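User: Can you recover a sequence for this backbone? Please restate the input before giving your answer.

Assistant: Of course. Working from this structure:
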C-alpha cells in the first residue's frame, strides 16, 4: 500500500519537490517499474517457429519476465480463445532461457530462442480467418546480482 502524503505540500518554498512526495514517487516507480506496455501481435495460421515481434527478454536487463496473454483465433468455422500467463526465466549457469506455462488449448505453441526472442507456432484452424492475434502484457523481475547472474558488461547488476 502506498503512503500518499496528501496533507504535505508538493513543493517547498524553492519550488522543489518535498521529501515526502519524492519518497512517494520513488516507491511508486519501484512498484510499477517492471510493468511494460501491452503488445498486440497478429499471428498466422498453420506456421512453424515465427518471431512474436516485440516480445522478448534481455538477460542484461532482467532475470524473469511474466507475460499475461490473450490469444484470439476466430474463423467463420471455429473460435479459439485462451488467456493466462507464461513465464520466461534466464538460467545464468547455462546462459539460456526457460519458458514455462505456455498456452495449452489455443493451438499455439510458444518457445524462446537463445537470444531471448519469443516465437510461436500454430496449428491449422479451418475456415476464413477474422481474428488471429496474441496480446501480451509483460512484467519483469530484475533480480540482477553479481553473485547470481552472468550479466553482460554494462548490464544492470
Amino acid at each position: 500500500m502506498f503512503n500518499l502524503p496528501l496533507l504535505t505540500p508538493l513543493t517547498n518554498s524553492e519550488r522543489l519537490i518535498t521529501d515526502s512526495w519524492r519518497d512517494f514517487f520513488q516507491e511508486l516507480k519501484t512498484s510499477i517499474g517492471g510493468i511494460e506496455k501491452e503488445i498486440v501481435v497478429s499471428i498466422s495460421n498453420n506456421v512453424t517457429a515465427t518471431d512474436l515481434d516485440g516480445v522478448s527478454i534481455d538477460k542484461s536487463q532482467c532475470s524473469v519476465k511474466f507475460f499475461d496473454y490473450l490469444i484470439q483465433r476466430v474463423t467463420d468455422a471455429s473460435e479459439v480463445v485462451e488467456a493466462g500467463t507464461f513465464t520466461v526465466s534466464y538460467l545464468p549457469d547455462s546462459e539460456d532461457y526457460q519458458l514455462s506455462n505456455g498456452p495449452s488449448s489455443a493451438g499455439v505453441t510458444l518457445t524462446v530462442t537463445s537470444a531471448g526472442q519469443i516465437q510461436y507456432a500454430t496449428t491449422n484452424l479451418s475456415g476464413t480467418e477474422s481474428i488471429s492475434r496474441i496480446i501480451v502484457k509483460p512484467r519483469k523481475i530484475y533480480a540482477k546480482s553479481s553473485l547470481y547472474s552472468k550479466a553482460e558488461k554494462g548490464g544492470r547488476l
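That completes the design. The domain at 39-141 is CATH 2.60.40 (Immunoglobulin-like).
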